[in-house]
Amino acid sequence: xxxxxxxxxxxxxxxxxxxxxxxxxxxxxxxxxxxxxxxxxxxxxxxxxxxxxxxxxxxxxxxxxxxxxxxxxxxxxxxxxxxxxxxxxxxxxxxxxxxxxxxxxxxxxxxxxxxxxxxxxxxxxxxxxxxxxxxxxxxxxxxxxxxxxxxxxxxxxxxxxxxxxxxxxxxxxxxxxxxxxxxxxxxxxxxxxxxxxxxxxxxxxxxxxxxxxxxxxxxxxxxxxxxxxxxxxxxxxxxxxxxxxxxxxxxxxxxxxxxxxxxxxxxxxxxxxxxxxxxxxxxxxxxxxxxxxxxxxxxxxxxxxxxxxxxxxxxxxxxxxxxxxxxxxxxxxxxxxxxxxxxxxxxxxx
Length: 350
Prior knowledge:
Helix 5 crosses helix 6 (190-201). Strands 3, 4, 5, 8, 9, 16 and 17 form a seven-stranded mixed sheet that branches. It is built from twelve helices and 17 strands. The longest helix is centred in the last third of the chain and has 14 residues, at 297-310. Helices cover 26% and strands 25% of the residues. The protein is of the alpha/beta class.
């Protein structure tokens, strides 16, 4: 077997295909043959230079595939406690954590002091099978994995280890009881659409906010009670969720949150969004503010269970556009940057 990885040289450069010999697997490691990788917005930000990334490297971190090799020793267990076996179809988590540092012990593996993130590592340090834009991914010990059925559409399976699990973390940060409450979700990208579906499924009245009419319509298909342009004034939110990354959406959070409400910020992950909230507005308004970045393994477990149960109700055809061959990665990235598709895919077998 020879694997293939698409190496990104830096902003403005074209990916080059690199042939890779099969690696020797250490205990706890797995080799996953990629079925589908979906293009996340963070990768678009990286290749455009809006987001720093180590170069050269192999990007991609929303991946589903089949286990074709395991290291010696006990088989790793997935996030639902299942022993992983060769032949299993798995969604690969976005990171690997050590499990022993103070942050891991505190229950924050997504902030591990020795964190490794797929698709975010330098080639010289991580090797070529370290991102989803490859024929295979070398899965390190400490990576959350979710074993999935073959029946689950790949369009829903691939984003599980990034967008879907993060949407679970976001929805959980908003509190357990949302039935009958007004929820504003800023941003109708995949993360916002999934959060909308999850919260609407729990009985929330969700208003999705996005400048794109097509995305607003998709939000309605996902269960939003209303979908509006950012210039509109939705009702004060019991739960205000910012997933767009737009500084204005973060700055207006307090003004658009009802007394006793909760603000969850998860989209503003880049510099450039200083906040000028009045402390007294938080105090007098009894407002809770939560930040969410990535997710814990339990969130991936819940994401897999939710996706399996909701798959028949979700508009899969509205969530994934074209799927390009792996060696057509630059065209896939260009299409993802300009098209209205929520996700564009890359598949080695396409």
